[in-house]
Amino acid sequence: MEIELKETFPVLNKTTAFVPCKDYAILMDLCSGAHLPLDPRYAFLISLCNGRFSKNQIFDLSQTLDNGRKISKDSLEGFLKESSKNYLHLRNTPLREPIQLPDPVIFAKQAYMPSSNPWDTGIPYDRPVEFDLYLTKRCNMNCCYCFVESGPKQAKNELSYKEFIRVLEEASALGVLRCTITGGEPTLNKNFIELITRCVSLRMHAALATNGTSLSCRILSKLKDAGLGSIQISLDTFKPDVFKQMAKTTFTCDTVIKSVKETLRCGIPLSIKAVLTKNNINSVDKFIDRCVDLGVKDIRLRNFEPSLKGRGGSSYFITENDLENLKAFVELKRRLFGQEIKISLILTGEKWEPGRFRCCRHALSGMGILANGDVTVCDRFGHDKRMVIGNVRKQPLSKIWKSEKHLNITRPAKIKASGACASCEDFDRCRTGCFLYSLYSYGDIYAPDPRCFRAISGGENKNPLFADKIILNGEHLFCINN
Description:
Number of helices: 18
């Protein structure tokens, strides 16, 4: 039986971008970078979330679509509930002045066309929606989970200030919505404030990803004046000994905590990112409490992942018991703090189920521009040429994004596939899953994803590149030595 919708009024958040494309639309939270490519009928629903229409009115309007495209009340309720996590909020009263959104008629017409959602087709977005700009490989930390081979010295072939400016201008012309300024440690580039200023002037959301060791009051004041949209500070623990163990640095966690306090004081939207390993997983509940006590309202937790160029190995993987405790802690904290505190839990390694495939999506929507100008669609491969689709010193971004190599990565020919993928009837939907997991498990980027139920049943995980074998234990990937 279909449910009755409460009379509430969905409104897109101020930080949400909603952009029509040829046969779909892009919905993006500019602060977090979370985004979705929407099929036209769901884009039609979002175009009505302007604060004027109630959920019941939105449902009634959705019934004007053709029978095969109509949405049930259950589907609408589920979609709006999921969207409220990142993109919209629900008001009890309508807005006096509804916000301006694209015309719903656009999507009503598109709803009858064949689906061209990039997540289904494997064809890259019409334009990248975001990119990471690596200002330098230089860093004053040596974190165990770093995947870009950062170090104390600046590389000799890094882009100049003028070259970085040109890249930003080309990205803006492409229609990029969000740029994350990162590194290495981006604040070690002497021009990082000027580059953020230019990014904002080009109407892109500028986000800064930093380890928080250089955020003085003076610098933060300049960043706020420049229009910086958000800051993400990496802080994995409040325990001094564990901090030293994971960051491998002469800095203390007190230095980072001070930067957190100063950032909150200056008013720039802040998130804390913590990578969970077996070193800090057991103190997650206290970690969340301490963040909230400091005034942090956006906490992002993610498990340690393998990376081709990273420093960490299999010993950093969390265990299945750790994972279950983590889920319980996070759910408890979410109920305790309510909607005022956003606690994101990003977990990779979930076992696939029939009909649910996880193809590589980042390569479809974004890119990383490394300090030497290489453009990669998977920064976890570092400078590995298999995922580099061009260099900004040799080609403009527009040509690199539309390059044949980019398309070949996102839609590999089936002849390249090995193992269960070579004969799989769902190959076009999955496209071998995560290339990095495939590489680590079988030594081949076009081998089956180790999370796939077909690969598991075939017992194919026999040639791992890790010193300790990666296994699928229950529902998630772990390492056998844990």
